[in-house]
Predict the structure.
Amino acid sequence: MAFLRSDLKNNVLLLTIDRPKANAFNLELIAELQEAFKQAAKDSQTRIIVLTGAGLVFGAGQDIEEMVILANQAGGGELSFREHLLKTYNPLVLQIRQIEKPVIAAVNGTCAGASLGIALACDIRIAADTAKFVVGFSGVGLVPDSGVSLLLPALIGLGRALEYTFSNKPISAGKALEWGLVNKVFPYDDLMEAVFATAHELSKGPIGTFGLAKRAYNKAALPNLREVLEYESYIQEVAGHRPEHKEGVAAFIEKRPARHL
């Protein structure tokens, strides 16, 4: 079953995550995204990539229920979080940063957890005024991964990143704009029109030069991205086998507040 819609028009490739009900990532969706960016990198007709979510949610992050299933399928009921990240989000984040074409995240609604990491990896973020950004990981006893530990403080500062990681409170679209988390905010009904206007204007530019500029910024501002992604996978392995994670998942499944001692 396909969870990613792809539409190329006027040199702009629109990738729409469509996995009801919250556009949460599972293995199939992540694989579809990896393949889409692989093909986009090779396609001369694709000059700009726009990534968005269907409906009112950009993405709820990793599908927790799938993680439970994967853990049950693993020997002894233990899932390797490190191996999972090395196969899924780490290469996807690197693909987005390394593709030498502009990537725009059209954040149409709530953006949480790993979905936040994917949005942060994009070059430009344009949000609906209804969008909310939630770090999310601590809610299930995990630590930021998918590049969030590097990209979020780089955009909003370490103090704010830590505050919203610890509190798990949402960052409104207005605050996101004020703090530099997003480039522009538009009313929900006007979002995609504004995104396509930006994308079409960029598509007329020197895409090859944009790609070299992106490479230069990666070197200057994110030279340790690969190393950070690797370290996140180690830290997540530790967090994923602690009682706090097990309680967080149980609370999520049972739809109750987590009880941490």
